[in-house]
């Protein structure tokens, strides 16, 4: 290969995009919320709903653990709100599993979080 071809290929090689923690969280919220929405609308598959709720609860538990860490740099009021939402999600999930509630509120919360992560604000 000559230098011209090497130079040309160096500029055309696709590098993977850098992913930020915020972007990763947005991707996870998008994936989980889509699963939760599909499962909530699928009247015939309680197992699918349980799996989606479990994944959602696990993610919120991880978020709660993250904001509880001393080294977390988010503002304290935001950390407290996220921690509260994680607790609410756990409680509401239990109500859904017992047939007392539906998943709509959890989908709304995840959607609001996703909008915030994408810089769109809570209203849309």
Overview of this protein structure:
With 124 residues, the protein is mostly helical. It has one domain (20-117). 73% of the residues lie in helices and 0% in strands. It has five helices and no strands. The protein has helices spanning 3-12, 21-41, 46-68, 76-97, 104-117. Helix 2 (21-41) packs antiparallel against helix 3 (46-68). The termini are far apart.
Keywords:
124 residues, mainly alpha
Element layout with pairings:
Layout: H1 3-12, H2 21-41, H3 46-68, H4 76-97, H5 104-117
What amount of the residues lies in strands?
Answer: under 5%
Note poorly predicted spans: none
Total beta-strand segments: 0
Integer-rounded radius of gyration: 20 Å
Count of discrete structural domains? 1
Structural class by sheet pairing and helices: mainly alpha
Distance between the termini: 53 Å
Query: Major sheet, described briefly?
Result: none
Q: Overall mean pLDDT score?
A: 87
User: Helix coverage percent of residues?
Assistant: over 70%
> Which term fits the overall shape?
globular
Number of helical stretches of at least 4 residues:
5
Order of helices and strands: HHHHH
């Amino acid at each position: 290969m000559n230098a011209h071809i090497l130079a040309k290929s160096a500029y055309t090689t696709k590098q993977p995009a850098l992913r930020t923690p915020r972007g990763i969280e947005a991707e996870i919220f998008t994936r989980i919320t889509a699963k939760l929405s599909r499962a909530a609308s699928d009247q015939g598959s309680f197992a699918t709903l349980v799996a989606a709720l479990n994944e959602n609860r696990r993610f919120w538990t991880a978020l709660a653990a993250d904001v509880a860490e001393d080294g977390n740099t988010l503002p304290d009021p935001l950390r407290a709100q996220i921690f509260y939402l994680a607790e609410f999600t756990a409680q509401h999930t239990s109500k859904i599993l017992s047939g007392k509630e539906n998943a709509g509120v959890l989908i709304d919360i995840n959607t609001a979080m996703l909008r915030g992560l994408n810089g769109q604000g809570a209203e849309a």
